[in-house]
Amino acid sequence: MIRKLKFLVYVVLGALTLSCSDWLKVSSEDRIMENDLFRTTRGFMTALNGIYIDLLNSSLYGKTLTWGMSDILAQYYTCREKDHASKSLADFDNVARNNAVSGCWSRSYALLNNINTVLEHCESDRGVLDDTYYHVIKGEALALRALLHFELFRIFGPSYSKDKEKECIPYALNSETKVNPLLPAKEIARLIMEDLKSAEESLAGYDPVIETGAEWGDDPEGGVNDIRYRSMRLNYYAVQALMARVALYCGEKDVAWEYADKMIRGIREEHEWFPFATREEIVTTNREDRIFQSEILFGLYNLKRKESVYEVGFGSGLKQGSVLRIDKDIMRDMYEGDDNDYRLSYWFAEMVDPDNNSYLHVIKYKEVDDVDPVTKISKGYSYIMPILRVSEVYLIAAECCPDPKEGRNYLNAVRTARNVKNIQDDADLTTCVEQEYKREFVGEGQLFWLYKRKGKSEIASGEKLAEVISMEERFYLFDQPQTEQDYRKENGVDN
Q1: Could you give all domains of the chain from N- to C-terminal order, each with its CATH number?
Q2: What are the phi and psi torsion angles at 313 (to 5°)?
Q3: Which among 136-140, 324-328, 374-378, 480-484 has the top mean pLDDT?
Q4: What are phi and psi of 361, to 5 degrees?
Q5: 98-124 in b/e burial notation, b at 16+ Cβ within 10 A?
Q6: H or E stretch including 16?
Q7: Alpha-carbon span 335 to 322, nearest angstrom
Q8: Contacts of 318 (CB under 8 A, 6+ apart)
Q9: Helix or strand or coil: residue 96?
Q10: 3-state class (DSSP) for residue 470
Q11: Hey, which residues does 167 pair with through a beta bridge?
């Protein structure tokens, strides 16, 4: 029998024992239950693990924020033909766009309430935790709070470069059940970075990732794996990567460069943590590592990735009107027709659908045998949803580095890792970085937010090579869910 990761057993058991939506209650009886939960280190981990699990909800990283809404709007897929299930969304229909993100709002704020409860108990029940657990749990929780607010900010906030003063979302700083005011975009950005700085400080000196890397594997001495498998948690380096992502989105290139450079030096100078995936890892027959697992700074482990991602969005069993596929000509142009590019070679395959149509399907998340033939232990890449990868930090460094020559070196490091030639010295670095984003993050939900950050007036269509879509400002903006608007009115909150 193949051994799955013990780490996941703990997570799943914790979630089954006390689900994320159940452990936070408001009645006095339920409050006692909550207090019981935080009497032990195991209880803290159960609560935190439940939060990580719930991030895989389809309204969050299970679909909307990764391969679904974000990438449909980015026009990766050919789905604007008549009668396709995603046509309205791909056409930027207002109703379709707002419906696509309504669940993200409610799920995120429910999770933020739980995150804040963990943070509050870190202080009120400080004596339960030793120093390592206290700082790691607190740091991860602060980072999770920042991450969810940032996702809400990108969706429901304005185009930041155009309107920093616009009120957009509340920032949940405690578990009180009250209606918080909408804050200006610049204040949201400040609070996100403040949480991330606090997370970085809490994790520094305590997160084992600094000295041992991701530690992908069970404790060799048979102990618990709470603070192993660090690439599955918002670890110290993932926090720095997120700080670089946030700063760049907010137009603070000097800050983005500071944290990108800091993270890269941290994983490369004394160690070789989170190395770029090798050819041997990527192309091993029947065991292709299509998500480049060694490079993942933070990902979520989804045991149902095949059923909830691949078969729902990309599988050959889907009919023409529901499958998310990529036009072959567009795809080959996107990768410069270079068959040596690992992404081109291993992320796409021609398949025949139930209607007997042959199309190019995305197989990045297709199930693959990831079990080590010697240890019989899963290496994880058949289940992981990438959220933050090393390659993104290199691309941020390429865009923000004050020295263009050094910037090209960062970009070329990514291209070399993907087995493609370096860009020429006279190539426009800005354009090249943007194109690399397009090639690098298929199914990961990052490209559309680059378009919003830059306020792109035209983007490439997913329907036909060389066709472009004229972008209206409203295409980048999303309405607060109607249920939230009604709730705020009922409670006498104007904004």
Answers
A1: 6-490 (1.25.40.390)
A2: -105, -35
A3: 136-140
A4: -100, 150
A5: eebbbbbbebbbebbebbbbbbebbee
A6: helix 6-17
A7: 25
A8: 311, 353, 354
A9: helix
A10: strand
A11: 184
The answer to whether the CB of 121 falls within 8 A of the CB of 38 is: yes
Q: Name residue, tokens 């950050």.
A: 453
- Against a cut of 0.85, is the pTM above it? yes
Q: Please give the share of the chain, as a percent, with pLDDT higher than 90.
A: 79
Angle between the N-to-C axes of helices 429-440 and 390-400, in degrees from 0 to 180, rounded to the nearest 10: 170
Q: Which two tokens stand for residue 204?
A: 């520094």
Residue type, 482: Q
Measure the CA–CA gap between 390 and 409, rounded to whole angstroms: 15
- List, in sequence order, every beta strand (DSSP E) within 295-454: 296-301, 348-352, 358-362, 384-389
Give CA–CA dist 41/135, Å, rounded: 12
Which tokens sit at 127? 């004596």
Those residues whose C-beta lies under 8 Å from the C-beta of residue 229, and which sit 6 or more positions away, are 5, 7, 214, 215, 216
- Alpha-carbon gap, residue 495 to 488, rounded angstroms: 8
pLDDT of 7 over the 60 cut? no
The answer to whether 50 and 30 are in contact (CB under 8 A) is no
Say if residue 286's pLDDT is above 80.
no
Predicted local confidence at residue 217, as pLDDT? 84
d(CA 308, CA 444): 15
Tokens of 169: 């979302």
